[in-house]
Design a protein that fits this description.
elongated, about 15% strand, two-stranded antiparallel ribbon, alpha/beta, 7 helices, about 180 residues, four-stranded parallel sheet
Length: about 180
Amino acid sequence: MAAPKSFTNLVNNLSILPGVGEKTAERYVYSLFEKEDEEVENLAQSLVDFKKNIKLCSNCGCLTDDDFCDICSDKTRDKSTICIVEDSKNVFFIEKTKKYSGYYHVLNGLISPIDGKNPEDLNISSLMKRIDENLKEIIIALNPSIEGEVTSLYIQKLLEKKNIKVSRLSYGIPMGGDIEY
């Protein structure tokens, strides 16, 4: 017997998420079936609200509900440093450590010609506009992958003539590793 169309449709839609294969999606669908209607409606509404309201911060490129993210809006942060990361997920991981108090700049990707990602496809030009006399250090916190290294070198080249200290994360992260871990 074939599964109902609604079941199959939901499995297919959940399978678009990273790390969610067909079996995991089926488990999610069975779980959703057992939930109260209100819980499922809240989930559906939060997905719609997320897609409708989320945008990139006008300043740093991080995910936000407003024009400026909470970090860029926080005037108590250290104006002398900017930490460059690949995506918003990395901002949230670094913030969880409570060890960094500067600002961020989110590239929203890495240079990868194979994937069709060139420097102009990244949030690099707005980084250059953020450089002013208050900025003393830029920390490049990209994953130690081939794409991360290429992007880091590209940014370092752009910053060569600026009077700014450029730092990189320690190489304790293994090649191919992820900042998340």
